[in-house]
Amino acid sequence: SLRDRSALLGGVTPPASGRSSPSPFEIPHHAPSGHRYVDDLEGQNDEHLEGLSAKVKLLKNITIGIGNEVRESTVQLSQMNDAFAETSGILAGTFRRMNNMAERQGCRWLWYIIFLIFVFWFFIIVWWIRR
Predict the structure, then answer these.
(1) Which PROSITE patterns has this protein been placed in (predicted)?
(2) Alpha-carbon separation of residue 78 from 75, 81, 83, 92, 122 (angstroms)
(3) Are 44 and 24 in contact (CB under 8 A)?
(4) Nearest to 14 by CA among 2, 26, 31
(5) Per-residue pLDDT tens for 72-92?
(6) What pLDDT, in 10s, does the model give residues 31-60?
(7) What does the pLDDT look like over 7-33, one tens digit per residue?
(8) Are 52 and 61 in contact (CB under 8 A)?
(9) CA 14 to centroid of chain Cα atoms
(10) CA 106 to CA 111: how far, in whole Å?
């Protein structure tokens, strides 16, 4: 367990290292009890460790969620690509047949389209006048 660190160390604190800042393992002179101070430090460390563990777990879950989303998006994009390729093939065949038909009939189909446009405009003008 995390609270058994002092038991693992045998209750011995490391000697001062000669640094100007105090070591967290050193017992300050104003501390009422050495073991209680070490236990308080261990408790604070454990709280911070639990907080960090929760944050790491949250980041892990977010990362897993992002990975799942990327995989699902990849599958959807692959399916869309297949659908577009199939549609492209169908449209290419349709336009090819339409061009073949237009080449066989010559310019006759063009005259039919011009006639239909003329009839359409005629009905529009008559409707506009009679309104």
Answers:
(1) T_SNARE
(2) 5, 5, 9, 21, 49
(3) no
(4) 26
(5) 999 999 999 999 999 999 999
(6) 456 788 888 899 999 999 999 999 999 999
(7) 555 554 555 444 455 555 555 555 456
(8) no
(9) 48
(10) 10
| CA dihedral of 80, 81, 86, 90, whole degrees rounded to 10 | 90
Question: Considering the entire predicted model, what is its pTM?
Answer: 0.43
Q: Which two tokens stand for residue 81?
A: 């690509």
Q: Where are the alpha helices (DSSP H) in the chain?
A: 5-8, 34-105, 108-130
At 15, which amino acid appears?
A: P
Are the beta carbons of 10 and 49 closer than 8 angstroms?
no
Q: Measure the CA–CA gap between 44 and 28, rounded to whole angstroms.
A: 17
- Contact yes or no for 38/8 (Cβ under 8 A): no
- Residue 11 backbone dihedrals phi, psi, to 5 degrees: 75, 5
